[in-house]
Amino acid sequence: MASHFRSYIWDPVLIISQILLMQCIYYSFLGLWLAGVDGLVHNSRALGLWFFIRRGKQCLDFTVTVHFFHMIGCWIYNSHLPAALSWWLVNVVCIALMAVIGEYLCMRTELRAIPVNTGPKSNL
């Protein structure tokens, strides 16, 4: 019997639901972060990859997708593409950090030792 563990079957419903989930997590943590900073001055984000994507190879894909849709949302909201250099620099740094930290956490989980049954062997 063939193993179906992490099979690579094209599943667009799964991919779309993961993208939507990552968008929700991204904006939830962004909202919490902004609320916290606003509370501190009176004026983070890779965990979603680790919990819901769980594949180091897919972290960069989902990170870029999340930030691409964020850019589209900013474009629609402002009626023009963001032009500030600081906006682009912050987003590039966030993409790099989110991808690297997400890949590190996912790879750490993927490379965990698989427990092997050390009980008595049965004669077949």
What does this structure look like?
By secondary structure, the protein is mainly α. It has one domain (12-110). The protein has four helices and no strands. The protein has helices spanning 12-41, 47-53, 59-78, 85-110. Helix 2 (47-53) packs across helix 4 and helix 3 (59-78) runs antiparallel to helix 4 (85-110). The longest helix is centred in the first third of the chain and has 30 residues, at 12-41. The model has no long low-confidence stretch (mean pLDDT 76).
Write the layout of secondary structure elements.
Layout: H1 12-41, H2 47-53, H3 59-78, H4 85-110
Helix pairs in contact: 1-2, 1-3, 2-4, 3-4
Protein name: Protein SYS1 homolog
Keywords: Golgi apparatus, Membrane, Protein transport, Transmembrane, Transmembrane helix, Transport
Pfam families: SYS1
Terminal CA distance = 17 Å
The amount of helix comes to 55-70%
What is the string of helix and strand elements? HHHH
Shape: elongated
Give the structural class. mainly alpha
* Tally of separate helices: 4
Largest sheet: none
Rounded to an integer in angstroms, the radius of gyration calculated over CA atoms is: 20 Å
Number of strands: 0
Name the poorly predicted regions: none
Count of folded domains: 1
Mean of the pLDDT scores?
76
Oligomer: single chain
What percent of residues are in strands? under 5%
Transmembrane segments: 12-37, 84-106
InterPro entries: Integral_membrane_SYS1-rel
Membrane topology: Multi-pass membrane protein
Keywords: Golgi apparatus, Membrane, Protein transport, Transmembrane, Transmembrane helix, Transport
